[in-house]
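Could you show me some protein's one-letter sequence and the numbers that encode its backbone in two labelled lines?

___
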Amino acid sequence: MTLSTVPLEDPGSLRARARLRLLRGIDRSILGAQSQEQIADTALTGFRQLVPCLRASVALFDFAADQVVLLATSSDSELQLRAGAQAQLSCALFLGDSPKGQPHLIADLSAASVDHPWVHLLRREGVRSYASFPLITGDQVIGALTFGLENAGPPASEALEIAADVADQLAVAIANARLHEQIRRYAEELEARVAERTAALRLSEARLRAIFAAAPIGMLLTTRDGQLLQANPVLLDMLGYTEAELRRLTFTELLPTGARHPEGRRQLDALLDAQQPLFRSDIALQRKDGRTVWAHVTVAYVRATPEAGNLSIAMIEDITEARQTQAALIQAEKLAITGRLGASLAHEINNPLQAIIGCLGLADETLAEPAEAGRYLAVAREELRRVARTVAQLRDLQVVDEPDRVERVNLNDLLAQLLTLNASKCAQQGVSVVWQPAQRLPPLLVAADRIRQVFLNILLNALDAMPQGGTLTVHTMRTRQPTGVRVTIRDTGEGIAPAVLARIFEPFYTTKKKGLGLGLYTSRNIIERHGGAIDVRSHPGRGSIIEVWLPTGPAFAGEHSETPAAPKPASEKSL
């Protein structure tokens, strides 16, 4: 019978296997720990099973503050140095004179020339030799694994190897724990910021909704294509729509029938394309029941996100009642001056009538002498013209602000007709005319008779200012901001004194021997009713300049959209 023998395992191999098993256990325990403190406590428990020692600790370094703090400690005796203890890093217990990153060993603590309170405490615990192994991550030392033995002399090589392995495990685990802690803190800060900003956004939205809902005027939000997005209660009440009904409409559909034109679309496009940041105008809006509401509208461009697109917000104030009140006040003012007009009218009409009566009587007596009779009849005819002019001015004064018949008018054509009409008078007075019409002038939608009356009155005033001759310049040009047409009429007459210029638009104010002083007053009213403006500048002895601006007729603006960047030089024509 043959007996086989099993060789006994070498004691060194057994110890190596046991050490490896414990190191793996330490590694698993470290991986399961949640904090730096738990990692250090777990590692120290496993380390003391592998390396019998009186005490072991994990310390963290702060080189900037020259400070060391004990993260965790493990000892069989009553600890004098507990976790949380702090000291200066330069106390030589952790780094000493060893190169950075190398273990620091003190073979005999009782003979060490280190005078530090921690050294005295370690001696009281019976520690004779001391070792400190750095915790290194990358090229940085973040702390140390330290242990103290009861015997003097350097630790065994196996203890040094185990300490080096555990120090490496600790360094990686603590670095990861710090990273996780930083991520956790950053996530908490981020969540707090998001929560704070979300709360601020909700508060801001709530405030804006409250302002939008409680605003005393109408507010409207529209899209790039003019679609109505949102309206506040004031606007809904003003127009008589529900919000759902209003959202199915576009902005131009709120304009009265007959006024839905490309101009509103063009202005909205310019606004939303940021070419025009702000638009203000008094416009008519149509209620759901068909009634017209006059409103002062201010539209502003809103730069939105790419997802939301460009928007505009409109603030709409109902001025229907204010316009009616203003019209009533104007009419009341006209009626109030009727009394003043009576006395002036009696004088203006009575004098020529008396002259007519006298001339007709004389003509009757001199019928046998035709030449004399003709002279008296000519005087009577001129006096009748005076009466006709007075009655015409009275008629213009009493016109109520009712809609006039409007038509498409080209101001170049209208002014050319008026200049032709007055060509004979210009020639008689020795006045040369310089006519500078703008090219491609857009037509206007105006009351043609009224506008003709305005420019005829201005031209006649200019000719009256140049009885001894001079130059009359008439210039037209297109304006872009705002869109319209400007007419400039310049004379080289005697000019207007500043005191007279200040009152030139007052009714019944005149410096002429003939007339009631209603010409410019009536002209300004007509221009303003068309949404335009009139301005007079004068230099005594050098002449006067009158500028009239009228807005582009909305129904026709789209047909003449080709506007040059700058007005071309006007051609000069002499009549």
Remarks:
- The first strand starts at residue 55 and ends at 62.
